[in-house]
Design brief:
This protein is α+β, with helices and mostly antiparallel strands. It has a single domain (about 5-125), classed as Trna Endonuclease, Chain: A, domain 1, CATH 3.40.1350. The protein has 3 helices and 5 strands. It has helices at about 5-25, 65-70, 75-90; strands at about 30-35, 40-45, 50-60, 95-105, 110-120. Strands 1-2-3-4-5 form a 5-stranded mixed β-sheet, with helices on both faces. A hairpin with a 2-residue loop joins strand 2 and strand 3. The protein is globular and about 40 Å long.
Amino acid sequence: MATSDPRHQFGQASEMQAERFLLAKGYRILDRNVRTSLGELDLVAEDQGVVVFVEVKGRTTEAFGGALLAVNHRKRMKLTKLAAQYLAQRHWSDKLCRFDVVLVQEKSSGQGGIEHLQNAFDAGEHGRF
């Protein structure tokens, strides 16, 4: 479903950029925009046997800091619950997982940059739920 909201369009474009970036790094994309009653997972990928839950943040300004600051405690807790739900639905309780954050930064010059923070935060003992 197309939207005319520029923020939504920028968010979608940021997710596509992040996906291409991760594919180039050898990740395999398992799911995109997984929506549940709890919220949404932007990307779910696999990296060398590890399930990776990827939060994508698009920024048009550098005023808010980098990828580390893009996901606060409340968002981390929400992502943890979403990931646990995702793994449970697939009966993947034995899978290792981690959380990455990809920040897509649009620069004033019209060019952008990508900051990828692997294993951005912990969500349980040894990455298992």
